[in-house]
């Protein structure tokens, strides 16, 4: 085909992009041609390595050819773009996981889709003209093609900086940030390629590599880390606005051109991905959640119109004031169910799910939507879309690869363990997502281990909304092997999973986290009640506290004052997102643990006593735990 030259020369499979006038932008046909060649060469013993390069001096590949995406998208045909991204991302995974060396020569611009084919190989070579960038936020996308993997792994907060500003990295910066491996002057490339073709030996590359110029990003990292350390786009913008550093002003200028929704989702994606469970496939699957929705619900079509089609450089972004609600970010990154990005090797698991209440029901539904075979059981007469219902817990657990439980307390957990462990097959995994006492978690884990079953205690944070949206956080305890087997399911049901340690560590993390949550909510409610009596406007208080040292999750994300901050249960007459009686349960567990471990927790004790009084004597039963605010409003000092 005229846009790409694919051949075998000597011991090398050769892929050369041949669209220099279009900066070698990659079309769908080019993507599929590369995919086919790589799959053929993977099985060909005559091909020892793959070399990717491009014609022209200006660019290796300046991105994907997005004209067709726009043309179909404005007609309401979103499927073409979804297919393009799906197959492109599968190609990115193929390159990253390729069993033979893949050598790429990245002259000039390497951006967007060019990063996906040029920066996932085993040997990424840059020269003096190389400029690598991720400008996707300027057209209403997020950095994709697996680039969030490299951004999440980049030193410090370089990922947030590069992803939200689109900063162009020179060769030294690209090596420092993890997008390239070797600096070789471009004049030497042709001779090196000939040697690679003749020998099929990628090890010779190291002998030709030279020391690049000093990295500017490395010199600036301390400043970048300070400016981009916020947990959300809003936090980062607040820090940048208040800084008098020249770099802050430059960053604000670059970010002012970009889609606020894209930048907010970029920051959130990086925060979700960071951690020991990060893989390229996980990054690509999360990216696809955004790009799948980008035309229909995001800024992509408007970004292309303004930048490429009409070129007025005046996009009409969603959330143009740069105040992006957390719910908007969550909607763009929530699981896709049956449309989840999958890879050829991915197969469905047999899952037993026991406990289909307010939390278990949507969790099990998300697993079924992702293509897993889920058999469910609950003591109540319930049905869940996509599930086959069993007559008992033992029946649901029989022959399952993984059994998940979501149960009310430790006593019931132990009873369920007695029922299901004898029916589970050796090597299966039991993942308990209940919030129970640490002793019960460890007891059933020991019981499972004796039967040859892997056990993970993985209580969750995120509430009913997080269960439905697939944005839960899992705090997991258990062996490395058990956690690794459960990890793919955590990715479907949640946004983050932290392996906290051995059995019981997940429960320990959960009760410590929720003790902080309970104490902090009481303090937040007390402060609002005090502000009322001092005549301080609640909105003014929020504006001050949410951006200063009183910052907390209970203030910024779950504000207990109606009409202030993001929407929360306070705006729905305190109908529970997280019920006060559940907070009381968790606080009691924290104090039980504190007593058994001889820990001094006076604030935890005080919070437990207040929630006991609120739930059992003051009408708090069935209310959200943030309904402490009207309680304090009614009370005086005595």
Automatic annotation (TrEMBL):
InterPro entries to which the protein is assigned, alphabetical: 3-OH-isobutyrate_DH-rel_CS, 6-PGluconate_DH-like_C_sf, 6PGD_dom2, 6PGDH_NADP-bd, ClpP/crotonase-like_dom_sf, ECH_dom, HIBADH, HIBADH-like_NADP-bd
Molecular-function annotations in GO: (3S)-3-hydroxyacyl-CoA dehydrogenase (NAD+) activity; 3-hydroxyisobutyrate dehydrogenase activity; NAD binding; NADP binding
Ranges of residues in domain 3-hydroxyisobutyrate dehydrogenase-like NAD-binding: 504-629
EC assignment: 1.1.1.31
Recorded metabolic or biological pathway in which this protein acts: Amino-acid degradation; L-valine degradation
All residue ranges annotated as the 6-phosphogluconate dehydrogenase NADP-binding domain in the record: 350-501
Cross-referenced Pfam families: ECH_2, NAD_binding_11, NAD_binding_2
Record-annotated Enoyl-CoA hydratase/isomerase domain positions: 13-322
Reactions listed under catalytic activity: 3-hydroxy-2-methylpropanoate + NAD(+) = 2-methyl-3-oxopropanoate + NADH + H(+); a (3S)-3-hydroxyacyl-CoA + NAD(+) = a 3-oxoacyl-CoA + NADH + H(+)
Record's keyword annotation contains NAD: yes
GO terms (BP aspect): L-valine catabolic process
Protein keywords: Branched-chain amino acid catabolism, NAD, Oxidoreductase
PANTHER family the record matches: 3-HYDROXYISOBUTYRATE DEHYDROGENASE, MITOCHONDRIAL, 3-HYDROXYISOBUTYRATE DEHYDROGENASE-RELATED
The family this protein is said to belong to: Belongs to the HIBADH-related family.
Protein name: 3-hydroxyisobutyrate dehydrogenase
